[in-house]
Every structure is written in C-alpha cells, then in structure tokens.
Amino acid sequence: MIAGNMRPVLIAGGGIGGLVTALTCHEIGVPAVVLESVSELRPLGVGINLQPNAVRELGCLGLADQLDAIGVRTAAYNMYSRLGGLIWSEPRGLAAGYRWPQYSVHRGELQMLLYRTVIERLGAPAIRTSARVTAFENTADGVVVTLVDTDGSTDTEHGRLLIGADGIHSAVRAQMYPNEGEPLWSGKLLWRGTTRTTPFLDGRTMVLSGNETTKLVSYPISEPDPATGAANLNWIAQRSFDKSAGFNKEDYTRQAKVDDFLFAFDGWSFAWLDDLESLVRGAERLYEYPLVDRDPLPRWTEGNVTLLGDAAHVMYPVGSNGASQAIVDGRMLGRAMLDHGVGSAALEHYEREMRPRTERMILTNRTAGPDHIMQIVEERCGGRFDDITEVVSADELQEFADNYKKTAGFAISELNSSPPIIPPVLDLPAS
Ligand SMILES: Cc1cc2nc3c(=O)[nH]c(=O)nc-3n(C[C@H](O)[C@H](O)[C@H](O)COP(=O)(O)OP(=O)(O)OC[C@H]3O[C@@H](n4cnc5c(N)ncnc54)[C@H](O)[C@@H]3O)c2cc1C
C-alpha cells in the first residue's frame, strides 16, 4: 500500500472512468476526491458493452457479483447483410474461451453501481457534486483546480495530481489544447433506444445488420423476466449524411423521432428480428447522437495533470470499447502510481503505456473497425449471397475478427495468460 499523509488525487468527472480511478486509488491506499459537474448523478444513457479485459478489472475491484446482477453475459456476436445473410458469427466472453465474461449493461446502472461503491469504500466526501472543473494550475508539488458550482459560485481544490476524466467535452483537455475545437463528426447519425420486449435468438447475442451507410445494432441488456419473458433490448440505428452539412451538437440526452430513420430500413430483411418497427416504436425514450470522435493527441500529461477515458481518447463506439478503455486506463494509472509513486513520473509512465494503444484504436475505428467487413460484403455482392465464403474467404473473416481484438487489448490467449494490472494486495511490497 502507498500510505501516508498526502493530498488527494483529484479526479475531474464521476463517469465510468473517473469512478473506477477513485476505486483503484482507494485499493492502493491513495486518497482521492471525485469532482463532478452535475448536482446529482442519475442513471443516464443506454446500453454499453464491457469487454473481458475490463470485466476482469471490475472483478479485481470486488464487483464481479454486482456486475453479474445488472448485466447480461454476452455469448455471441453476429453480423448480417441488409438482406439477412449471416456474414460472421463468433462466440464472445466465456463462450469464446475467455476467463472472464463480456457484459452488455445499461450505462447508467453501471455508473450507479460504481458510485455506490465509491461512497461505501471512500466515504461520501470523496465525491463532490455541483463541482465543474473549469481550470487547473500546476504547482511545484501538486495542482490547484478551479471549480464552478451549479449556482455560479467558484471555489478551488488543492491536490497532489489532477486526472481529467471529464468526458468528450473535457475542460481539462480544453485547457491543454485551447485551439482544438469541437469533436469531429463522421457524417453519421445514431438513434439509440431501449425497448422492453422478447429478446431475439438466444437472448445473449449482439447483432449488427447492414453496412457503413445504414446499420442496425441490437443486444439485450437485461435477463428476461421469468414471468413474461421480456427483457430490455438496446438498439442503435445509424445513417450516413453529407458531412459538409455539419452537425456538432453531440449530447447523449437529446430526444428524437422514429420517423427520422425508420424509412431507411424499408425493404430490409432481418434473419434475427420479425418486426423492426415494433422494436423501435416500443422504446421508452429515443435519443439522437452524431457519431463523433477526436484526433489522437500528441501528449496527455502536463506536469501533475493527465487525461483519462473519453477526455483522452474519445473514439467511434464501433468496437464496443469506450467504457472498457476508460476502465483499463484507471487501472493502468493505479499501477503506474504503485510503481512510480504518486507524482508526475506515474502520469508519464501511464501515458507511455496507454496513449499509443488508444491512438491505434481511434484510427482503426475510423476505417477498419470489427464491422467493416459488412461494408466489404456490401461492395462485393450488394449483401446478397448463398455462401459467404464465396464473397469473403474464411481466412479474411477470421483475420478481421482477430486483428481488432488484438488492437483493443482483448485477444483471448494474451489476456488469459497476462497477470492482473494491479497485483493482489498480498503481493505488494510493504510500504
Ligand atoms: C450522460 C451520459 C450518457 C452516456 N450514454 C452513453 C450511451 O448510451 N452509450 C455509450 O456508448 N456511451 C455513453 N456515454 C459515454 C460513455 O459513458 C463513455 O464513452 C465511456 O464510459 C467512457 O467514460 P468516461 O468516464 O471517460 O466519460 P463519461 O462516462 O462521459 O463521464 C464523464 C463525466 O464527467 C462529468 N463532467 C463533464 N465535464 C466536467 C467538468 N468540467 N468537471 C467535472 N465533471 C465533468 C460528466 O458529468 C460525466 O459524469 C454517456 C456519457 C454520459 C456523460
């Protein structure tokens, strides 16, 4: 354990990455305080996926059972053409041979689980809400952070380090890169919702249908109710637009209408779904969101301040990786603090480990994410085939699937045989 009487590590942002970082600090004996802009954390968002590398880390934090209670163990990943032809199917999580499951889970429920755990373990004062970080100043041995309350009043916090885990519109990143501007729009819009209905296939499969221009993704994020058989199905419809039109109002909570996108799926056939219209019209709420990312940064760290999660590397969500990467970042930062002490050397080390990896992922997700094979099939045969291996060879299909897992850090044998990021407490050197 790193013990002692030190100023806390300040974490800007109580999202998935910030809360995991706080729990990790606690695990290694480092005091931490989360500074969150909203006045009350609420379970916002729709479905996300946690890959086995991130699930392993949540297990190391003692959250395996709680995660199992709120998520669905994803067992398969299927890709179809817009005419219903099965392009690729692979097992996922335990079914694929990982030692840890993959989970599909409601983002808000995961955030609330982490939030409750931070309160239980670190105490309520470890999360300061209505505390929007607006600026930071490096000092010789720490950092001073300026905060703005929801009522407009300002305050400061002093810490040993500042971790900018404040998401896609990070104020910490904006201070480091004042000329960066808004996130970059891909030209695609997403409509996202969850609908309570009978799940498709085995109730544990993530499905993608279509191509780069128009796509439908769906997966269950709850177990079926034993009485009714209904589960919460997460779905995402995607369409492409003329990029020059510009569309930069990314906001995870903007509501939208089914008629803005449903017509784009006219004439489609879904081998796995009987009635798309019922699925999307049955959603309790429907959100619209432009598919955006940001260019990789040349540096994340400035003295005693670094970036983490979406603030450091927001990427297209094509590989179901945003939350998983934020979790791995938090754990790697903890490991760096164990190895290099709670100071700027740890931040430099963490950045050296994580920045090149996530840079590869941002760039891969732009052009060759795991579902890019669906576009290749569209271009080669318009989505119509009897035998997929006459369109794309079995080797090419396998290579696509394997390469992405390697890039994202969840290749099966590498992950299964690697030691945990933070060694179990008993293995740590005495403080
Ligand atoms: C409300 C919301 C809903 C989302 N819904 C989805 C979804 O449905 N599907 C999906 O794939 N991804 C969603 N995301 C994004 C997803 O959570 C992230 O991509 C991923 O989990 C990485 O997490 P993160 O901790 O880096 O960022 P986030 O989870 O975005 O967390 C950032 C946190 O920082 C806080 N914050 C922002 N600015 C400041 C500031 N200046 N000072 C202090 N705190 C600040 C935010 O309120 C938020 O709690 C959502 C994010 C948010 C904030």
Overall description:
The chain has helices spanning 16-27, 52-60, 64-70, 107-122, 171-176, 276-281, 310-313, 322-340, 344-367, 372-381, 394-408, 412-417; strands spanning 9-12, 32-35, 47-50, 72-74, 76-80, 86-91, 102-106, 127-128, 132-139, 142-148, 154-159, 161-164, 184-197, 205-210, 214-220, 231-240, 286-293, 305-307. The protein is 31% helix and 25% strand. It has twelve helices and 18 strands. By secondary structure, it is of the alpha/beta class. The protein has a seven-stranded mixed beta sheet. It has a five-stranded parallel beta sheet with strand order 8-2-1-12-18. Helix 1 (16-27) packs parallel to helix 8 (322-340) and helix 8 runs antiparallel to helix 9. The longest helix is centred in the last third of the chain and has 24 residues, at 344-367. It has a domain at 9-74 and 107-182 and 297-368: FAD/NAD(P)-binding domain. Bound molecules: flavin-adenine dinucleotide (FAD). Flavin-adenine dinucleotide is lined by residues 12-18, 35-38, 44-46, 48, 107, 132-133, 165-167, 169, 171, 252, 309-311, 317, 322-323, 326. Residues 12-18, 35-38, 44-46, 48, 107, 132-133, 165-167, 169, 171, 252, 309-311, 317, 322-323, 326 line the site of flavin-adenine dinucleotide (FAD).
In short:
The chain is 31% helix and 25% strand. By secondary structure, the protein is an alpha/beta fold. Flavin-adenine dinucleotide (FAD) binds at residues 12-18, 35-38, 44-46, 48, 107, 132-133, 165-167, 169, 171, 252, 309-311, 317, 322-323, 326.
Keywords:
431 residues, alpha/beta, FAD/NAD(P)-binding domain, 7-stranded mixed β-sheet, globular, disordered C terminus, binds flavin-adenine dinucleotide
